[in-house]
Amino acid sequence: MRYLRNIELKDKRVFLRADFNEPIENGKLVDDFKIRASLETIEYLIKQKTKIILASHLGRPSGQVVEELRLNPIAERLSKLLDRPIKKLDDSVGPQVEEAVSQMKEGEIILLENIQFNPGEKEKSEEYIKALAKLADVFVLDAFGQSHRDYASISGLAKVLPSYAGLLLEKEIKNLKSILKNPQRPFTVVIGGAKISTKIKFIKRFLETSDDLILGGALANTVISAKGFAIGKSVSEEEMVEEVKRLNLTDTKLHIPVDVIVSVDSSGQAPAKIAPVGKTEEEEMILDIGPDTVSLFSKIINRSGTVIWNGPMGLFEIDKFAAGSKIVAEQIAKSSCFSVVGGGDSITLLNKLGLLGKINHISTGGGAMLSFLSGEKLPGIEALE
Ligand code: ADP
Ligand code: MG
Fold first, then answer.
1. How far is the C-alpha of 22 from the C-alpha of 81, rounded, in Å?
2. Which of the residues 82, 115, 118, 184 has an alpha carbon 20 to 30 A from that of 152?
3. To test the ligand 1 pocket, which listed residue (33, 345, 356, 362) has its Cβ within 8 A of the most ligand atoms?
């Protein structure tokens, strides 16, 4: 791995691929955790007297310009946090971008437009890689949360420019590598959240490498369904049931909810009640884990040497269905284990509870963190080897 600290950068144009993919509502930033996590590298590059060209994606624009996904609110917040002007451009490549870059002085910062407005980013097109590479002398990857993607600005640029891991990526790799190689046991993995389709390969892998694997949230609904229990109108991916059935669902290290909170209405208006798994009525939805499940999961967390957590245990955005996620978060925070948490919603929850400081490593990646810890090769990181 090539690291940023070891090179002479003065006067160089540095292309910094950061991860500023923050939640945005009505054009306003709802969180700035990832922007803050990027500051150390940016400040380092300012001190090294480089010209800094920042790039990130935001949301899922699918290769076209989406007005609400422009990076202007990111530029504004970043500028405030750095206490420096940032020149935000309206494109990521082309003559106007090249002109702006050619006029940069050392210590100056340009933020390119949302890199996924260009279809070449996800297609990893040669043409787009070339157009981006023209802008800089050096490539720095700091977007850990995107490092599992094989995209132009992630793994593509590293092939054509001298490239290095930024300070944030370096920290992520060092923290996660020690767990991958030698986790303090018992090693517990807690996975919740929405979709089992995006996480099933990690679940398979952790069934081999962990000591305890806890599943909650909507993705556990699909497992409950695969076990033959009714789940009513719960959020679930029925097309995944067959694949889930092929997991070893009777493995004693696999823990799924034994009771749940159900309601006929996910807005929180209708009454909610505790039900044993299997006793969900046709018109009900499973919206949180129940109290017996909370005690079971807490017990496992408390005897763990390492806990990895990604994804809430229920529809935590609604207070009525937040208790399971909250208690699990609190248990992880107060346990003496080495704790690692990643994923946008999980971090939002920890932040709300004021528990961010009680976690040993907060990862800026959800999918990337699970991918790394399950032993996969991440294209962005591979490209820097
Ligand atoms: P993260 O962002 O931490 O990686 P995910 O994006 O995978 O987590 O999943 C978070 C989403 O899953 C939240 O919006 C949460 O409301 C939703 N969710 C979790 N459990 C349920 C459930 N039982 N029913 C509906 N939605 C759920
Ligand atoms: Mg999420």
1. 15
2. 82
3. 345
Max Cα separation, the chain?
67
**Rg of the chain, C-alpha, whole Å:** 22
Query: How, if at all, do strands 272-276 and 259-263 pair?
Result: antiparallel
Q: Distance, CA 119 to ligand 2 centroid (Å)?
A: 23
Q: For the chain, give the percent of residues with pLDDT over 90.
A: 98
User: How remote is the CA of residue 344 from the centroid of ligand 1, in Å?
Assistant: 10
Output the residue whose Cα is nearest ligand 1's atom 10: 193
- Which residues 6+ apart lie within 8 Å of 379 measured at CB? 147, 148, 149, 150, 154, 155
| Whole-structure pTM value | 0.94
Sign of the Cα pseudo-torsion (307, 370, 248, 182, in order) = negative
Ligand 1: lining residues by beta carbon, under 6 Å: 192-194, 217-218, 235, 286-287, 310-312, 314-317, 343-346, 366
Mutate-to-test residue for ligand 1 from 144, 315, 349, 362, highest number of ligand atoms within 8 A of CB: 315
Mean pLDDT of 268-278: 97
Residue 259 has pLDDT above 90, yes or no: yes
Q: For 301-321, what is the mean pLDDT? A: 98
Q: Which ligand is nearest to the CA of 222?
A: 1
Q: Check whether 6 has a pLDDT greater than 90.
A: no
pLDDT of residue 144: 98
Q: So what's the pLDDT on residue 270? A: 97
- Quote the Cα angle for 56-57-58, to 5°: 125
Ligand 1 atom having least distance to the Cα of 367: 4
pLDDT higher than 90, residue 165: yes
Instruction: Tell me how far CA of residue 133 lies from CA of 46, 239, 260, 335, in angstroms.
Output: 20, 42, 52, 46
* pLDDT tens readout for residues 80-127: 999 999 999 999 999 999 999 999 999 999 999 999 999 999 999 999
From ligand 2's centre to the CA of 39, what distance in Å?
Answer: 23
Q: Ligand nearest 310 Cα, by number? A: 1
For residue 91, CA distances in Å to 61, 88, 181 come to: 14, 9, 41
